[in-house]
Each structure stands twice: as structure tokens, then as C-alpha cells.
Amino acid sequence: MLKQDQNELLTQTDAGSPMGRMFRCYWLPALLASELPEDGCAPVRLKLLGERLLAVRDGEGRYGLIDEFCLHRRVSLWFANVEADGVRCAYHGWKYGLDGQCTEIPSEPEGSDLCRRMRLTAYPLVLRGDVLWAYMGPPDEQPPLPEWEFASVPADQTFTSKRLQECNWLQAMEGGIDSSHVSWLHRGNLNTDPLFKGAKANQYNLNDSRPVFEVAETEGGLAIGARRNGDNGQAYWRVTPWVMPSFTMVPPRADHPLHGHFWIPIDDENCWAWSFDYHPTRPLTAGERQAMEDGKGVHVRYVPGTFRPLANKDNDYLMDRGAQKSGASLSGVEGIGMQDAALQESMGPICDRTKERLVSTDRGIVMARSRLLRAVRALVDDGVHPPGADPSHQRIRSTAMLLPAGQSFEEPAKDAMTAQKGVAHVTV
User: Fold this and answer.
1) Please, which residues have CB within 8 angstroms of residue 242's CB and are 6 or more apart in sequence?
2) Helix or strand holding residue 202 (H, E)
3) What is the pLDDT of residues 232-242, one digit of tens each?
4) Which pLDDT tens digit goes with each residue over 173-197?
5) Measured between alpha carbons, how far is residue 176 from residues 126, 170, 179, 246, 321 in Å?
6) Calpha distance 69→52 (Å, rounded)
7) Separation between Cα atoms, residue 295 and residue 335, nearest integer Å
8) Distance from CA of residue 156 to its chain's centroid?
9) pLDDT < 50 regions, the chain
10) 272 near 263, Cβ under 8 Å?
């Protein structure tokens, strides 16, 4: 368990907070590219790290992320007209470039220099893959552009979604590095979900619900290995990479696509759960892509016109007690993605970690918390930038493999966990 001050340190991410400063060291997924589909389209409101922002694609196709509110009377610029080189406030016609600089104040007399002194907060917004990425830190400390493999493969090999998750980012991320719950929470889906079924590995998850964990530090975060009994005396290892602060990948099954997540704070009580599927060596099939769009695997169905899950806390996640009693679903919640979200949200907006009782299968969670605490203190106290922003830390994969009993995963998994263009992932 964590002490209360440690819990607050890791869960608070608004501007001025230590973890807020740390998140601002990275390029963060901000919007799907499809949310700004064409030059001069309607802007999009969003909230990241406690800041209310406006994403814009101007008439020349440039992207920008600016403060949502006009400096004049603080009305929302969501009502603004998007022009060739910026946005014009609908209230009094003030105009801003995508760098936040005010370029016109129609009511001011000729010769006034007021316009020059007016500037909104603005952040760079760039397209990589099917995601628009934002950097919200100091301009002179901007890291290289992200090089995650899912955002680097051809468009027909990848699929990305996002959903609103109504809890703090940390409890969502911790679920992503907890392999032990798969044998319980998801047991009814392993052999039925089209993005999981048919893999020999599913039986290892179902037959051995007492995984043994080993955790190794990597340059960017951790490699979390969960060992279960395999065939013929072998050990079945599922290795989950965690790259700071909030990237995880789910170990693969057979030739199914690889998948994983980012959890990005909206504010202290909500986050965006980003989910991606991709295959490093082939296009996604029509069936796979349709399953993803239908909310299978790590994805979810939405309330129409929103990114809020159709199953949510207001309707008790459409829980089916009949399915629970029959054994079809341990939780009664449909779908792998929503099973995770429902249980994580049930902890409350911010989990009280002073009351939890951790066990041996929580070793990865304990080490991730420790590494986060060390990194945020080093950043605040000594100005040491945290790992994970370097592209070399991002060229990583999850893996699953059978190894001789008694052999650690760490050395055999090194090559398998390195993303290599045109090389298939290693799995069982």
C-alpha cells in the first residue's frame, strides 16, 4: 500500500503538480486524427492534465492546440470561425494564430500595439499514425517525436480507439500491468472474443490461475513477466512492457494483432483510455477491423456521438447477473475492455491505496509505483528528465513464450521485445 502523501503525489496531474510536470515531459496522445478530418473543419474541445483546450486544423491544414478561452471576455473559442491562418472569436472578432498569438483586434484603433501583447497558451499538435499528439511542456525541452510501432506501421496494419474512463489514470494503468486478473476477470472471453480466441496460450491462462511474477527494470520502465505452467514441464511466460509514464502492451496470442494502451489524465478523476491494435507484418483483416469497430478485444462500444462507453456507471455497466451465474462471465459485464474499466472505476474516482493489501502477484504494480516516485522526485528535486520520452524506449513489444522450467524470461525475451520493422512478433 501507499502512504496518503505518496498516493496524492502520483495521482494529481494538474498544472503545477509534480506528476503534472512529469506528464508534460512527453508527447501525449490527444485526439484521433479522424476528429479533425479536413482543413478548416470544426475545432474540438478537450481537457488534458486539467487544462481546457481547443484543437484546431486551420484552412491550410496546420494543427494546433490552444487555450479554449478568448483572452478578451473568456468565451469559448469552440464557437470561433476557423480561417485559413487561425481562429476568429465569434463574440468580438479577436483572431488568434495556432501559436496562440493574437493577430487582430478589430475594435482597437489603428496603431494600437495591444494585439501584439495578447497571446494564448498554445501547444504543438502533430500527426503520427492515426493519432494527433500534443506536447505540453517547456518548448526548449521538447523531446523527439514519438516512435511507437503502432503509429509507425502502414495505415492498413493498425487501429486505434479511445474511451472516457471515469477514474484516475493510475488505477487504470495499474490494471494494464496486472496479468493475474486475466485468469479470472476475462476467462469467459478468452475463447470467444474474435481478437483472442483460438490461441493455445488461452488454456495456459485458464488452467493456471497462480502466476509467479518476475519484474526487470528496462531503460524506459519495466518488463513484467508472469509465469504459468505450460506443456511438457515447460513454463509459459507472458511479458508485459510498461514504458513511463502510462504505456503498456498486452502480451500477444498466436497471430492475433498486438494490442495495448495509454492512460492519459483528463483531470485527477478522469482519464482517456487509449487502445490500439496492430500487426507488424500484415494488414488487419476485414474481420479483425470490424471486430475492433464493434468494441471487441480491448475496444468498447460508445454512446452514439461520444467517446463514453455504452456500458457505464450510470447503467451499472449493463451487468448481466444471469451470465454471471451461468459462468459465462465472472463479473457479468460484457467485453474485455469494459470489464477492466468497470472494475477500475468501482474503486472510486481516486483509489485509496492506504487501505489496500497487496500480494505477490502485485509485484509489477509495486515496482511501477516505486519507479514513478523516484522519477518524479528526481525531476522536481534535480531536474532529471524521466525515461520513456526517448524513441529508443518506445521501440518495444510485448511477448509470450514457452521456456524450460526454471529459466528466467529476461534474457530470452530481449530480442522478442524489440520492435523490428518487418519482423513478426514472438508468441505462443
Assistant:
1) 173, 176, 177, 221, 222, 223, 224, 248, 364, 368
2) helix 201-207
3) 999 999 999 99
4) 999 999 889 989 999 899 999 999 9
5) 26, 10, 8, 9, 26
6) 8
7) 8
8) 21
9) none
10) yes
